[in-house]
Amino acid sequence: MERNQRRSRCNAECKMQNAELRRYSKANKVIPVVLLLVFLVIALPMGGAAANAGYGYFAEPNRAIAPSIPAEVIFARSTDAVFMIETFDSHGETIRTGSGFFISETGLALTVLHVLDNAASATITLYNGDVYPVRGANSVSEEFNLAVISIESDKTDWPYLALADSDSIEVGNSVYVIGSPLGYFNTMTAGIISTVTREVEGAELIQFTAPISFGSGGSPMLNSRGQVIGLASSSFSYGQHMNLAVPVNHIKSMPTGECVPLATLLSD
Description:
By secondary structure, the chain is α+β, with helices and mostly antiparallel strands.
């Protein structure tokens, strides 16, 4: 009888130990699963802005969703949206050439105002050689030497560049300029931002080192993400790589009214 009692106690203890082992085993399985879920929550990127990133008139740069890209990729993505502009007097004679770029798919574009001086008409030439007449000017800024122009075409899917936030730039940031210096289509140069704010004749401009020449006025100045941070406008002729660009935030604040013929500006 005593032997049977010992055997019963032994069986009871074994059952308890087995139960403990099963609970321990389940806990060990749960812990890795919990840890894995925590890791996934921490590691996976959040949605929202990242899902909607892309080109657009008021696109803002975001370091988390728009990393730097190689210069050759920036050129490939931007070149179709950049053009050479050629202006003519009332007799059809060429006055000068400059550069410009599209900021909307409807054909709204930017260039420098001085390229339109004394112009009765103008055309743009794309990288692929296609030529379109300029319909007229929608808005101008003498203070910042800017002109918003429209293109004469029924096309509604023009390639265009995103405008970033020029308040976020810093000295030393890499920049790229794509334009038509001396009439050479879509020439790309590289440099850095020398000074974030350089006051010239009352206007606050960005000073940069990417080389520009006659005909570069109106070229987009791009950041390392391929977004426009400024528009190349002028340079110090007596300095080396001392060039100036209009901050893109000034462009954003320009009103876009009805398009008027360039001849109207000429008569004014």
